[in-house]
Design a protein that fits this description.
alpha+beta, 7-stranded antiparallel beta sheet, globular, 20% helix, 174 residues
Length: 174
């Protein structure tokens, strides 16, 4: 299933404002911290800079990704470790990110949550775009099959600093 919808979330300074602005449900159980590196590659080029993902950024990406499918943020525990990428395209001053949302577990006797359903079959990988000082826009990139066009073209310089395949929508193995 290819989703072309998008959600726009404000990028306020306070994390709580992001959650309040992007979702009607918040949870103090959301895990946004990680000791994982931002990505498997580091450094920058003259055209793009690989940046560290902060807890505030992770919270914003989680809210934007959950909002894309109108799923409450509380149905997720955070972002999957080792699959969060963040960079700046120096030519356009646009920030880019990629992340997999991690659905919260449900009791064995309960039906799967909307978050779990949306995360099946690699459906939980998202690409995000933000103009400097602007808002995050989320794009579902997880259900793209072989030879399928991405919902948004990520600049080649950003793909390069992340170590993603040329024209890719997500890292290898995501």
């Amino acid at each position: 299933m290819k989703l072309r919808s998008r959600v726009v979330c404000a990028a306020p300074v306070a994390v709580l404002l992001v959650l309040a602005g992007c979702s009607t449900t918040t949870s103090s159980q959301i895990s946004t911290s990680s000791s994982e590196p931002t990505s498997n590659t580091s450094g920058s080029s003259a055209l793009a800079a690989n940046l560290p993902a902060t807890d505030a950024l992770r919270t914003q990406l989680l809210a934007a990704g959950a909002g894309l499918n109108s799923i409450p943020v509380a149905e997720f525990t955070g972002l999957a470790p080792g699959l969060t990428y963040y960079a700046l395209d120096k030519q356009t001053n646009i920030y880019w990110a990629g992340a997999r949302l991690q659905p919260a577990p449900t009791p064995n006797s309960s039906p799967p949550s909307q978050a779990q359903i949306s995360s099946q079959d690699a459906g939980s990988y998202y690409v995000f775009q933000q103009s400097k000082g602007g808002q995050w826009t989320a794009y579902a990139a997880g259900n793209e099959g072989p030879n399928t066009v991405c919902p948004i073209a990520i600049p080649p310089a950003v793909l390069s600093v992340w170590g993603w395949p040329a024209g890719g929508c997500r890292p290898s193995g995501a």
